[in-house]
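Z., the sequence and structure:
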Amino acid sequence: MKNWMAALTVAGAFALPLGAQAQDNYPSRAITWIVPFAAGGPTDAMARNVANRVAQELKQTILIENVGGAGGTIGAAKAAKSTPDGYTFLVGHIGYMAAAPSLYARLPYDPARDFQAVFRFPDTPLVLLVGEKSPYKSVSDLIAFGKQNPGKLNFSNAGVGSTSHLVAAMFASQAGMEITPIAYKGAGPALNDLMGNQVDAMFDQTNTALPQTQGGKVRALGLTSSERMPQFPEVPTMGEKAIPGFQVSTWYGLYAPKGTPDAVVQTMYQAWQKALQDQAFTGRMSEQGIQLLQPAQYAPAAFQQFTAEEIQRWAQVIKQAGITLQ
């Protein structure tokens, strides 16, 4: 009888779902965060910054796996197909988690259906830049020229479907003008040509634009944030004087493959909550022009809802701009 009961107990243990077996001591080994871009870019830098701090709270290693290609969709597809055991996550981004469903005729994953939101990172607003020798002194100057000269304003961007491309398209649509997008292989080359006065303007993230504006190599005309930022004390928001209601940021966040146990999601989110209480950590991000959110906005449910809303928002922008990818 005793042997039969022991066998039943062991069998019952093996019958438990995979997640249930692992939750008691999660995480018991290194965790992988997939970043769908090459190392060294802004998404990779953000991911490593957050991962290092969250790993301290989890007391476990977080490894960054860079899986680049196709605007981030290759890495996202790999994450979607990974085992939902709490040891593989995706570092999500506005491009391949919100814009991609409307950009690609065939996408090998569904951002809403194949992933569970874990937590949102702080946002990174963008800033409208022109070269130091540019004749445009304000956003209104730029819009006035653009309306009078359809298609003559060249906006550089980090690639077709990139945040800088999409935000420029959104800006042109709301300003009622036509611009010519110039796609580059990354934000660096796009910014270099702006500094070399080869193009007229560009939207860039505040954290990467800040050193260039401080060095006088480019001039900032307007911020896409809801309020002015101390890092750009003389720069108005886009909605302040030029386009009322214009607000957009590059956003990032952590996603788990659908089916990941809720206890695992909550463990990861709680580690992030603790990391956000570190004022030295959040202070460094703020200094770089990265914008902290309201506490409730970081949570899994809020982030899941935000993702769904962003998919709809960018579908409208992309349709109006006529942007398509194969």
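The radius of gyration is 22 Å. The domain at 125-240 is CATH 3.40.190.10 (D-Maltodextrin-Binding Protein; domain 2).

Let me know what you think.
H.
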